[in-house]
Each structure stands twice: as structure tokens, then as C-alpha cells.
């Protein structure tokens, strides 16, 4: 491997670490309380180097959103390996519930960013969050459509709204059991949708 290639690989690794750190720190602390130094420290990258990859904190927020979208793509790709759309939807709910302790402490990573970024006057990054949420809605809609259910888009909104609601309450009340109970309720709801088919 040449020195140039090694340098490029290190650069990609630093950028990747910064992106992952941005997603993690922004989820824990929120946009306004997070500094570039916080992200640099978590990524184990000197603060001065951050500006080589990301010129502003907003670029780091955008990178964090891309990280969330990438994680969602990985999750749905795994779920797509299940042969039955109903099983995919149930496994999605189970994946949400498995994050109950994190949700109790910090809420939903994408949902909390959406709520915080919506309050900003510039109105750019909040649209980016909406795009990430739209990916999840579209995937869920495809599952409901594959099940042959009417109004698959509305069902997807109900499912994702249920998740966002249980995540918000779990966080607000610091009670992971809410996520468990409401996740069970969502799975029972999913079963009722297909019980007549």
C-alpha cells in the first residue's frame, strides 16, 4: 500500500469516526448543547482536524442524519431477509423495543433531532430529518402493501407514530417498560390487521 493510499484510508476512517461520533453525541446531548469539540473527543480526532472534513456543526448534523439513514438501511436490509412482510414489521417493532434503555435516556435518535431542528429558523436540516423518516415510512408502507392491506400508507404512519409516541413517553418518564408494553401492543395490532386475511 502506498503512502498516498494509507493517507486516504486514514482520512476515510477519521471521517467515518466523526460521522458516527456526531450521531452518538447529538443523540445524547442535542444539537444546541453539542460542540464540535465534543464530537472530536468522542471520535478521538484532534479538534483542528474536524474542520478538514466538516466546516460547520450543521455539516456534522447532516452527517449524523446520514448515519441514522445508513443504520436504518442496514436494519431494513436485515429485515428484508425475512420471507413474510408481517414478520418483518414485527421484527422492526422488536428492534425498537430492544433499544428501550437508550430511548428511556435519550429518546429516538431521529425523532429527537426532528423536534429540535424544527425549531430552527433556517428550515433546512429539519427537511433532511423528514427525508430520513420518509425512508422508514416508505419501507413500512411497502410491507403493508405486500400484505395486501388497504391504505398501506396510513398504516405505515400509524406504526411509525406509535413508535415515536412510545419513544417520547419512554424518554419523558424515563421508563423503559413503556416501550416494552407499547411494543407488545403494536405487535398485537399488527396481528389484528392480518387475522381476517
Please describe what this structure looks like.
By secondary structure, the protein is mainly α. It contains ten helices and no strands. The longest helix has 27 residues, at 3-29. The mean pLDDT is 92.
Distance between the termini: 58 Å
The count of DSSP E runs of length 2 or more, i.e. the number of strands, is 0
Indicate the proportion of strand residues.
under 5%
The helix content, as a percent range, equals: over 70%
Low-confidence stretches: none
What's the helix-strand series? HHHHHHHHHH
Biggest sheet descriptor: none
Round the mean pLDDT to the nearest integer and report it.
92
Q: What kind of oligomer do you see?
A: single chain
Radius of gyration from the CA trace? 19 Å
| Class of secondary structure makeup | mainly alpha
Number of helices: 10
Please give the structural blueprint.
Layout: H1 3-29, H2 36-43, H3 47-53, H4 57-79, H5 85-98, H6 100-106, H7 109-117, H8 125-146, H9 152-173, H10 176-194
Helix pairs in contact: 1-2, 1-4, 1-7, 4-8, 5-8, 5-10, 6-9, 6-10, 7-8, 8-9, 9-10
Brief summary:
Helices cover 80% and strands 0% of the residues. It starts with a helix and ends with a helix.
Amino acid at each position: 500500500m502506498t503512502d498516498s493510499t494509507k493517507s486516504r484510508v486514514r482520512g476515510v476512517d477519521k471521517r467515518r469516526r466523526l460521522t458516527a461520533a456526531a450521531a452518538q453525541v447529538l443523540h445524547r446531548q442535542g444539537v444546541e448543547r453539542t460542540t464540535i469539540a465534543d464530537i472530536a473527543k468522542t471520535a478521538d480526532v484532534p479538534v483542528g482536524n474536524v474542520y478538514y472534513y466538516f466546516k460547520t456543526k450543521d455539516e456534522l448534523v447532516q452527517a449524523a442524519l446520514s448515519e441514522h439513514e445508513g443504520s436504518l438501511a442496514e436494519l431494513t436490509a436485515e429485515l428484508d431477509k425475512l420471507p413474510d412482510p408481517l414478520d418483518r414489521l414485527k421484527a422492526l417493532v422488536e428492534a425498537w423495543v430492544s433499544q428501550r434503555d437508550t430511548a428511556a435516556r435519550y429518546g429516538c435518535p431521529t425523532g429527537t433531532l426532528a423536534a429540535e431542528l424544527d425549531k430552527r429558523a433556517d428550515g433546512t436540516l429539519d427537511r433532511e430529518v423528514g427525508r430520513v423518516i420518509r425512508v422508514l415510512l416508505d419501507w413500512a408502507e411497502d410491507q403493508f402493501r405486500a400484505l395486501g392491506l388497504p391504505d398501506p400508507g396510513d398504516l405505515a404512519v400509524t406504526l411509525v407514530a406509535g413508535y415515536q409516541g412510545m419513544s417520547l413517553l419512554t424518554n419523558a418518564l424515563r421508563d423503559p417498560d413503556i416501550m416494552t408494553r407499547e411494543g407488545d401492543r403494536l405487535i398485537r395490532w399488527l396481528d389484528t390487521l392480518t387475522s381476517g386475511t
